Amino acid sequence: MAILMTPKKACAVNPLKMSQPIGGAFAFMGLRGAMPILHGPQGCTSFGLTLFVRHFKEAVPLQTTAMTEVTTVLGGYENLDQAILNIFNRAKPEIIGICSTGVTETNGDDVDAYIKLVREKHPQLARLPLVYVSTPDFKDAFQDGWERAVARMVEVLVETPSVEAPRDPARVNVLPGCHLTPGDLDELRNILEDFGLQPSFLPDVAGSLDGHIPDEFTPTTIGGIGVDEVAAMGRAGWTIAIGSQMRRAAEAMQAKTGVPFRLFERLCGLIPNDEFIAFLSEISGRSVPAKYRRQRGQLADAMLDGHFLIGGRRLAIGAEPDLLFDLSSMLHDMGVHVIAAVTTTHSPVLERVETQEVLIGDLEDLGELAKNKNCDLLITHSHGRQAAAQLKIPFYRAGFPMFDRVGAGHHISVGYRGTRDLIFAIANLVIADREQNHRPTPDTWRDSKLLSRTGRTERSVA
Amino acid sequence: MSSLRATVRNIFNEPGCAKNGSKPESERKKGCTKQLQPGGAAGGCAFDGAKIALQPFTDVAHLVHGPIACEGNSWDSRSAASSGSNLWRTAFTTDMNETDIVFGGEKRLYKAIKQIIDKYDPPAIFVYQTCVPAMIGDDIDAVCKAAAGKFGKPVIPVNSPGFVGSKNLGSKLAGEALLEHVIGTQEPDDTTAYDINLIGEYNLSGELWQIKPLFEELGIRILSCISGDGKYREVASSHRARAAMMVCSKSLINVARKMEERYEIPFFEGSFYGIQDSSDSLREIARLLVGRGAPDHLIERTESVIAREEARAWTAIEPYKARFNGKKVLLITGGVKSWSVVAALQEAGLELVGTSVKKSTKEDKDRIKQLMGQDAHMIEDMPPREMYRILKDAKADIMLSGGKSQFVALKTATPWLDINQERCHAYMGYVGMVKLVEEIDKSLSNPMWEQLRRPTPWNALARAMVKVRSQAIASISDEAIGETARRAKKICVCNTVDLGTIEDATCSHGLTSVEAVRQHTNEAGGCCSRRIENILRSPPAMFQAAE
After folding, report:
1. Measured between alpha carbons, how far is B484 from A302 in angstroms, rounded to an integer?
2. A223, B39, B176, B344: which could form a disulfide with A86 (CB 3.0–4.6 Å)?
3. How crowded is the C-beta side of A395, counted as CA atoms within 13 Å?
């Protein structure tokens, strides 16, 4: 039972957090033929774009209403109108997603009303879905933007099925949290298909940001779930929501279509996957394919091999709530002590993180906690590299952004296989660290003070 | 805000800018304010520009006053290098929340400044204004003044909220902050007749260090680099330099010109990209310094260094000429002096099929025409779709551009090199140009491209199928068609047994001899035993595929 601490500093140093609008825009990137827009000055889009490009190493569609000082005074209607029209004419999108920013929220732009006016003025847009989500920069974080955007998509795009239309029990809706990578989604897709289920992912960033090479150039997203498929999600037998952040969207789906949902807060680790696989077997009416029986055995073996290295480690982790909960719980189940936990925003899962305190804070906090509490394993996104260099402890990159490594989109942590590989990756970092920094010397055990300095006494308490 | 507007107007009317100077009187005041197009804009904002210009000062704390987006989404993204402090890479932001928006963020800003001074004690703090606090009326000038007075440390307001304009404008506003609050506020420990300022050089990937050894060899001292690998004390005392070079970019031209006006420091605009340019720049520095009292022999010494370095560079590039024979380059850069790179690439034997001239002046364009001929393909603005087409049609063998168009090139399986600010290689001076040629060669000669351009196996098969209408292939690519084909191919004409029947029989019963097949298929076997042997020897394609 962890206590949630909120920041007392006036100045955030090396932020862990990223802003809500780009979390919302990211969700729209999982729709096919989509163009997300940030309603704000062009810098908001430019920074977000650069961040996504550095992470995925892919072309990323993201546009701006290019608000200026003058248009801010006048209100953003004209800019929004022009932006939608320009994108409609040039990029020919199948859908436009609009996220507000700090500027337009401070201004009080009523975007829903603007969209009505735009539709009245330009009848040619009648068939183009426009989804607006309010995401002020000065509130909440990346994960919240994603959460709100997906919930809005369900509210706006999913159709309520007619009473006589039959449900298709083989069809399953999957609502993944923003902490899952394109690789994770593909892994889940395989698993579901192996049970004879037909999954629809909303959003499906695996279709757009997995790195595949399209045949033609398109200025919008190059893949993802189509608007028509989203509309038909109401006919599915089940909705699977992954990560606590997706509860809102799952509930919206249920309210609108009656499709029941099951929320999996974690998909990393042995027990969560046992539950997941059992659930799939139950809803599909199929026995668990041999492949997954073998994979479970492999994960068990990875836990046996890895626990020598990972068990007893003192973890400092900085991540958004759902990722923090998922990874720290899996590692806790492997004998890791979760010593320092820093996150970005509120979430019901935080109090269940296996540690004493979770702090809504920044990477300065995480670095200091790690140092003062003698942590010897660091997990956070790429911005943790400066702290890692100072701490000289094994650093596993997880979450968004990951700009100083390639293959960020294909890190897999879900499923038996994903967990297995994650355990190997972290264990290998520990081996490398031991060989580089902790080779025994004739003097290693001579100085008795060394013992207390490495924090062995504290370890037994924690 | 009114004073900010006055500053912006003042900046746009820039007599030092050739591009501005060439406009009619009435348009000069408008400056470079291109109307941004909603839904079609792709650049950074003024705050971004201010950060680009000032953040390379390494020992300064850069504090961003605004909501999380401005710093949280953008920090630690530039590759400027530092020889000392790493404080510049630490992100400081007030991370304004809803309460600050309602009640004003000035108090939080003041406390943030105190927090930084207490903990990091930097020689100075730069405070960057952003859109939201500008909208709600946070007076950062007043807060900075109060904090500076209270803590006895320079706290510099950089008034460049994103929505006032482009990156270029933001850099200039940052320059104004330096002119108003920093330059001339301290005195250097000592001065020499060889002191210069470099203005608008950001030491990306450490490229300043590619030319610094040449300066050192000539005895030239960089009193202050604004701002690459710069320190606060250096820029504060930069008004004692004898000459200045404005490096390759007009973004800080206001700093260069006003320092000339105020402190009589002559400046020129030069570049260290390209061999010819590097030589010209070294010559010009020597000339200016001699004009300000440095001994005459500096010019001679400079010439001998130039001769040596040029010879070295050309020798290093020479071997590539043969390798680059017939290779075509598309050069897309926002940089002003693309002609200087054009010259070097041509010298290495590459053929230029096009170069962008988006930000070039008329003289730049004339230079390009001189180099590439009258029919030079000068590109004002190329939409990604067009770029994609050029590369897909293999009209260029390699594209050099900024990171934004990277994937347009790579997705057509065309070599590409980053030559803008996010790049990870240093391309300055003589060694830098050799490095650029090396990188181009590495990319062009990579055997990977050939593999990537090959058709996928399924595409290759589909093509083959169209060509020969081979039965076996048909059965892999389309089971239904394959099945019909298998049934349609009569093996034993007399007994009307088809291929499919024989294959199914051999497969399901594991038959290996003609005799066995005959028993299972009712087939005479006299007339067609050889055909059956052939079938047995090569198992049907669809089963191979299934394995």
Report:
1. 49
2. B39
3. 23
Instruction: Report the distance separating Cα B160 and Cα A22, nearest Å.
Output: 22
| pLDDT higher than 60, residue A342 | yes
Six-digit token string for B174:
């940052």
H or E element: which one contains B437? helix B429-444
Over the stretch B57-75, which tens digit does the pLDDT of each residue have? 999 999 999 999 999 999 9
Nearest CA in chain B to A53: B404
Using the 8-state DSSP alphabet, how is residue B57 labeled? Answer: B
- The amino acid at residue B468 is V
Which residues are CB-contacts of B335 (< 8 A; sequence separation ≥ 6)? B248, B249, B273, B341, B359, B419, B420
d(CA B282, CA B271): 10
DSSP letter string over B212-249?
Answer: HHHHHHHT-EEEEEEETTB-HHHHHTGGG-SEEEEES-
Cα-to-chain-centroid distance, residue B357 = 16
Chain A and chain B share a number of CB contacts under 8 A equal to 205
CA distances from A383 to A8, A360, A401, B77 (A): 22, 16, 8, 10
CB atoms within 10 A of CB A125: 17
Tell me the pTM.
Answer: 0.88
Q: How far is CA B250 from the centre of its chain?
A: 17
Write the CA distances from B20 to A317, B170, B260, B266, B526, integer angstroms.
52, 17, 19, 20, 94
pLDDT category of residue B331 using cuts at 50, 70 and 90 = confident
ipTM for the predicted complex comes to: 0.94
Identify whether A203 is preceded by a cis peptide bond (ω within 30 of 0).
Answer: yes
Preceding amide of A401 cis, omega within 30: yes
Q: Which amino acid is at A58?
A: E
Cα dihedral value B330, B332, B338, B343, nearest 10 = -10
Q: Which residues from A are below 8 Å from B165, CB to CB?
A: 68
Is residue B64 within 8 A of residue B44, CB to CB? The reply is: no
Q: Do B411 and A86 touch (CB under 8 A)?
A: no
pLDDT, tens only, B149-167: 999 999 999 999 999 999 9
Question: Which residue among B69, B164, B422 places its CB closest to the CB of A69?
Answer: B164
Question: B202: which residues sit within 8 A by CB, 6+ positions away?
Answer: B52, B53, B56, B78, B80, B227, B228, B421
How many CB atoms lie under 10 A from the CB of residue A193?
Answer: 11
Output DSSP code: residue B164: G
C-alpha span between B35 and B6 (Å, rounded): 19
Cis peptide before A100 (omega within 30 of 0): no
A9·B135 Cβ contact <8 A: no
Residues 6+ apart with CB under 8 A from A80: A39, A65, A98, A109, A111, A114, A115, A118, B38
Residues of A in contact with B389 (CB under 8 A): 217
Q: How many CB atoms lie within 10 A of CB B444?
A: 18
- Closest CA of chain B from A296, distance in Å: 25
How far is B1 from chain A, CA to nearest CA, in Å? 10
Q: Kindly calculate the radius of gyration of chain A based on its CA atoms and give it in whole angstroms.
A: 23
Chain A residues close to B406, C-beta within 8 Å: 53, 59
Residue carrying structure tokens 């320059």: B175
- For A28, A252, A309, B50, B243, the CA distances from A245, given in Å and listed in that order, are 16, 13, 32, 36, 59
Given this model, what pLDDT does residue B544 score?
A: 37
A12 to B163: CB separation less than 8 angstroms, yes or no: no
The whole-number pLDDT of residue B423 equals 66
Pairing of strands A12-13, B92-93: antiparallel
CB contact under 8 A, A22 and B73: yes
Query: Would you say the C-alpha torsion B307, B308, B309, B310 has a positive or negative sign?
Result: positive
Mind telling me how many Å the CA of A261 is from chain B's nearest CA? 33
